[in-house]
Predict the structure.
Amino acid sequence: MEQPIGVIDSGVGGLTVVKEMLKRLPNESIVYIGDEKRCPYGPRSSEEVRQYTMEMATALSNMGIKMLVIACNTATAVALDDVRAQFDFPVIGVIRPGARGAVKVSKMRKIAVLGTEGTIKSRAYEQEIERQSPGTTVYPLACPEFVPLVESGQYRSALASEVVERSLRELDGKEFDAAILGCTHYPLLEHPIRKHLPENVQIISSAIETVVDVEKGLRENNLFRDATVQVEPIFYTTGPLEKFEAIICDWLAMKKADVRQICL
Ligand code: DGL
């Protein structure tokens, strides 16, 4: 089926999922919306996040997508069920796959979850991990400073390392062997996060497992794109284009990207 897959996030975080989609599903066409004007979603109320998520899903529905990936944990935590109820196309979230990735590798059955305030407050990961692996201990940690660092393009800076070190101190003394990057922005900070977590801890980004679900959804609904000519993804933002394109090109190793502005 020729139609594109829609991917949404509050900003550039969903690119971590797009990166994996480009690797595993290179034949698919992708249209992305990052709501950078209203980013971060983490500190916002669930009503606001639900409304913004619905606006992005509606815009992509009007463009004729065949599937939607909510590549944002904060939005998945509060809006997945509503979006599924509203639209006919399959809708994939990131929390179930992220939890699955961690449950798979945690031998101690002790898992840390790093996320935005909204995601941590929702307890969505705790519930999902408990559902998949009852009795597992979860150490949730809100990291409100991470998303602004990524959005401002400072994810490789010395400041990023300092902020990550300070934030992760909260986990000192806790024992766990898996840590979920429960925000799609956080893989851009994986390097400092790796540096400041104990060596035995496996870091789980939900992107890989999410794309497993995307592939499964395409197969089950007979939605694979047949055409063999590859098409470039289109990236919409509600914010300024220049910084958006710089992060896309850096993170996805592209020379140029088709970036466009959108009003929601
Ligand atoms: N990428 C979003 C997430 O996964 C970031 C949320 C935010 O904007 O605070 O939660």
Summary: The chain has a mean pLDDT of 97. DSSP finds eleven helices and ten strands in the chain.
